[in-house]
Amino acid sequence: MKTKLIALTALTGIIFTSCDKDEVPAPITVQTKSVNDLQADTIIGISSMGQPYGSGKYTLYSLETNAVIANTDSATTKWDIGFRGTTIITNGGNSGPGTGGAFVYTGTFSDLTIIPADSTFRLDSAPTSYAVKTGSGNGWYNYNGATQLITAIPGRILVIRTASGKYAKIEIQNYYKGGVTPDATASDNDKLTKQRYYTFRYAFQSNGSKNF
Amino acid sequence: MLFTATAFSQEDTLFSKTLTELVVTATRTERKLSNVAVPVQIISKKAIAQSGSVRLNDILSEQTGLYITSGGATSSAGGGVFGNGVQLQGLSPDYTLILLDGEPIIGRQGGVIDLSRLSVGNIKKIEIVKGPSSSLYGSEAMGGVVNIISEQAQLNKLDASFRYGRFNATDANITAAIKKQKWGLQLFGNRNSSEGFDLDKTVPGKTIDPYGSYTTQARFNFYPTQKTKISLSGRYYNEKQDNYFLTQDIGTGNTIAITGNGRVKDMNLNPVITQQFNNDLRSSMRFYFSRYEYEQTLVKDADKSSYYHDFFQQDFYRAENQTDINLPAGNFLSIGAGLVAEKLNTTRYAGKRSNDIRYAFIQNEWKANEQFTLIGGLRYDDNSAYQSRLSPKLAGQFKINDKLRINASYGAGFKAPDFRQLFLNFLNTAAGGYVVYGANEINISELEAQKQQGILSDILPRAYQLALLKPEISKGVNAGAQYDVNDKLNVGVNFFRNDIDNLIQVDVIAFRNNAAAVYSYFNVKKAYTQGAEFNASYKLSNSFHIQSGYQFLLTADKSDIKRIKEGDVFARDLQTGEAYRVSRSDYAGLPNRSKHMVNTKLFYDNEKKGWSASLRVIYKSRWGTYDKDGNGLINREDEFAKGSTLININAAKTINAFRLQAGVDNLFDYKDEINLPGQPGIQPYVSVNYSFIKNKNNK
Fold it and tell me: Best of A189, A191, A193 to disrupt the B interface by mutation (most B CBs within 10 Å)?
C-alpha cells in the first residue's frame, strides 16, 4: 500500500463551549491531518458484464493512530472507518464490533466546531443502508453520468463516531489518484484506473468530547 | 394577386430593414417587417452570399444574440457532442424550433438539431423569431423559431458553384430553375465534404473524422388558376462520416483500433395547396412527412467484431389546415388545426414507440388604425402521453411616428417531453446496473410489485410523485423599440425575460437489491433567462455599410439560487482543496452561455465595378463549461472557457457570368481544443460561381 500520510499544520481552535460570560473559555487543540491517495479497492478488472471490479475488500483505517489497519483485523475495534469504492463503513452496526456510527454534516470543515447535541448518528446496516449514505448526491459525492466522474461534494463533512466512541470529522476532498479529478475529456481507461484513491483531511478529538 | 405579389417580390436588400421587407414566421401570414410586433431578424440571400457561408451554423453564428453550441465533450446542457445547435435568448437548442418552409426539421440528438445538416445554397432568406411569442408553432418554440425559406423558381436559371478550403473542404452546388406562366420548378444539389482535422497530434485518430454529405432539394409550384397554388417540395440528405480511433481495451489493457462509420439520412416531403377564395378568404392545406435516420457501427479493426452499434429512426407525419379571414374593422383572423403522428424505432428502447398529437390554433390581428396593431393568439395541443397544453400569445405595436415604433409581446411556449423522457426503459449493465424508466414506463404499483419480488430494496418518497409528465413551459415578455433615425442609420433595442418552468429532470425513485439506483423523470426545475439586445445599421456611403449587434444575457437555475441563499452550497478551492460557502456573486448561471456577445460587420458592395467584400468580427465572452467541484454549479475559474473573438474576411469579384470569391474564416487561428473541438482554426477558401443563364430580369 503506497499510502502517504502527511500531518498538516496543527490547527488551533478556541471554542466557547458556553454562552455564559463568566465562564473561562477552554482552549481545545485538535490536529488536522491529511491523508493522500488512500487506495479504496482500486479496479483490477472488468467483468464479462462490463462492470469494473476490485478485490472487494475494504481498506480499513484508524483515525486514532492515523494508519491503515490490516483486513485480518476487520473483526476488531482497531479500525474506525473503511473505504471500498464510493462506499464508506464505520466500525459499528453490522459492519464491525465497535460503537461506530456517522452522519453527514452540511457546512465547512471549520464551521463544525461542536457536534450538535441533538445529532443522530446512523449505523451501518449493510448492504442496504450505511451510516454514510451511498448514491450520488445522497452522501459525500456526486456522480456525473455525462462525464462518468465522481466528485466529492464540497461542504459535506462526515461526522464519525469511532470504534471506541470518540469523535472525528472528515472532509473528503478527492477520489482520484494524486488528488486531481481527470478532465471530462480524459480516456475511459484513465477515469477507471485513477479512481478509488481518497484524499481527505480529518480532525480526531482524543479527549472524547464533541468539540473540535 | 396574392401569389404573384410574393413570388415576384424584390430580392431582399441586405442592409436596411426596409419597410417593404416581408416576414411570414412572426404571424403565420406575410407581413411587412415594420408591421411585426415581435422581435424578428431576417437574413437575406445576399447576406449569406457575401458572408461566404456554407452551412446554416456558419451564417447563424454571425447574428446578434444567436449562440451556436458545439463540441465540448460533456456540455450536454448546451449541445455537447451532438453537433451545432442554436440558442435563442439564452434558451438551449432543445427549445428552439428549426423550420424549413414552415415545417419542422426533425432528428434531434441529445435535444439538438445539428445545423450543419442544412446547406445554405438554396435559401432565399432566413427568418428568426425570438422568444415564445412564436408559440403558435407548437412544441419546442420556447426560445424561438428559425424558419428557413427556400428558393422557389422565379426565373429560368442554371447556376453552379464550387468552393475549396483548408482540410480539403469542398462545397459544390448546382441550382436549376424553370419558370413558366402556370408552373415553376426549382432543383438544387449540394455536396459537402472535408477530410476532417486533428487538434491534438498526441492522441491517435482525428479530432473530427472525415465526412461527406449530399443534399438534394426540389420544389414544384403549379398555379392552375389565378387563385390556386399547388406546391410539392422534397429534400433528401445523406451524410457519412468515417471513424477511426485507438482505445484501450479495458479488459486486457491492450490498445486496439476501432473503425466504422456514422450515417445520417434525413428526408422530407411537403405538398401544399392554397386557395384564395376571394379577397377576404384564403385557406391552405399542408401535408408533411419527414424521416430521420442515424446509425453508427463501430468494429474492432483486428477481427471486425462488433464494438458499438446504435440505430435511431424517427418518422414524423403532419396534416394541417390554416384559414385566413379578413374581418371588418381591421381584423384579420387565422384559424388552424392539425394532426401529428410520430414514430420512433431505435436500439435504445424496447420496441417501437409512437405518439399522436392533435392541435388547433386561433389568432386575430387587429389593426385599430395606422398606428396601433394588436395580435392575440391561442394554441391547444392534446395528446395521450403527456399533459395537454394551452399556449397564449399577445403582441402589440404602436407607431409613434414614421421613424419610431415600439413593440411589446407576451407568449407562453412549451416543449413536449421527448421520447426518452416518456418511454426509455434502460438497464445499464456497464455502469453499476442502474435503471432508468421513462415516466410512462413505470408507476408506483409496478415498483411495489418489484419490491415484493425482491428486485428492489427500497422505494423512495419521490416515487409516490410519479405522474403524467407536463410539458416544459416558458413564459416570455419582450419589449423594445425601432428607430429609423434617417436614411442611413437605424437602431433597435429589445429587452427580454423568459421564465422557464416544469423543466424535466431525472431523479432517483428506488434502489435495487444491489444498491444501484432506479431513476425516472419529473417536472422539477425552474430557470430564467433575461437580457437585452441592441442592433444598429449604418450606411457609410453608397458602397459601405456597417452593422453591429450586442446581446447582454443573464441566466440562472432558480433552485440553485434558492440553495445559495439558504447557504447550502459550497465550492472547493482549487489550490487548497478546502470548501467554502458559495455566494450569489460566485454563481455564473446556466452553463454554455456568454454574458456578452458582440458582432460587427462591415460590408462593401460596388455593383458597377463588380466588387464586394466583408469584414466580420464576432466576439463572445467567457462561458461556463461544466461543474468540476461537485456542487453542480458553474462558479470556479477553471469551470469557464475563455472568451473568443473570430474574425472573418472575404472579397468577391463578378466578371460577366463568373463570381469569384476568396476569404479567410477565423483569420487569427483561434482554437480551444478542450471546449471547442469543432473549431479547426484558420480556414482560407476560394470559390467560383458560374451562371449559365444570364437573365436580364434579375435586377
Answer: A189
